[in-house]
């Protein structure tokens, strides 16, 4: 199911949501500009050796990794994405970051793995972010977004704390936005594209509690059924971010009358 739009209009312009989208798009365009230097077999050996060694990287390999010629795009991902074992072991593996390694919990939110990855994330943020920002306020939304993303990252890290496969994307933070919307506007109408059969699609209005609840169940089932050793979709980050956003939204719900008509 793909949400197309909701029907609630906020009382203020969602400047923070727009700025986050713009920053993500600009960073992605920069990533694309770096992809002109393709990966080589040396790059693949570099990555395989790193992943096999994990956080216990021998000194000889550290030197090899530091001076290997990897693609600029891969270097950006490995440097500023979240590498779980760096967080859990408190180490910084090459290529090194110019600041404390835990800050990658924030920088990774602005990197994406491809066009469809960023398109899906920014689409969901555009549809649901403005309403949550309207409730929390611009400054409150900044802290909410960052907190949801950090909690989401730790949810995925706990699932596989020793992996050296980097995590990137705004999905965890945006999952927090979905969780907040689920709590604040459970009966808000969302125009949704629903594929019923391979060649039959309907556009219907669904309550947010159904659409987002179904989305959360899919993430949870994906988390318990998918192996955490490899790459792919970070289901636990999605589920963890959703729960974090829902809990944070509960703190403000008492002083706010939710959008409730169907």
- Approximate helicity band: 55-70%
What is the molecular shape?
Answer: globular
SSE string, helices as H and strands as E: EHHHHHHHHHEEHH
Strand content: 5-15%
Number of helices: 11
Distance between the termini: 19 Å
Give me the CATH fold name.
Answer: Rhomboid-like fold
The CATH architecture would be: Up-down Bundle
CATH class: Mainly Alpha
Report the uncertain regions: none
**Secondary-structure class:** mainly alpha
**Gyration radius over CA:** 20 Å
How many domains is the backbone divided into? 1
Q: Could you describe the 3D structure shown?
A:
- The chain is mainly alpha-helical.
- It has one domain: Rhomboid-like fold (Up-down Bundle).
- The protein is built from 11 helices and 3 strands; from the N terminus they run E-H-H-H-H-H-H-H-H-H-E-E-H-H.
- The protein has helices at 15-34, 41-53, 59-67, 72-80, 84-89, 104-107, 115-136, 138-159, 171-184, 208-225, 235-253, and strands at residues 2-6, 189-197, 200-207.
- The protein has a 3-stranded antiparallel sheet.
- Strand 2 and strand 3 form a beta hairpin.
- Helix 7 (115-136) packs across helix 9 (171-184) and helix 9 packs parallel to helix 11.
- The protein is globular, with a radius of gyration of 20 Å.
- It starts with a strand and ends in a 9-residue tail after the last helix.
Q: Could you give the topology of this structure?
A:
Elements: E1 2-6, H1 15-34, H2 41-53, H3 59-67, H4 72-80, H5 84-89, H6 104-107, H7 115-136, H8 138-159, H9 171-184, E2 189-197, E3 200-207, H10 208-225, H11 235-253
Antiparallel strand pairs: 1-2, 2-3
Helix pairs in contact: 1-7, 7-8, 7-9, 8-9, 8-11, 9-10, 9-11, 10-11
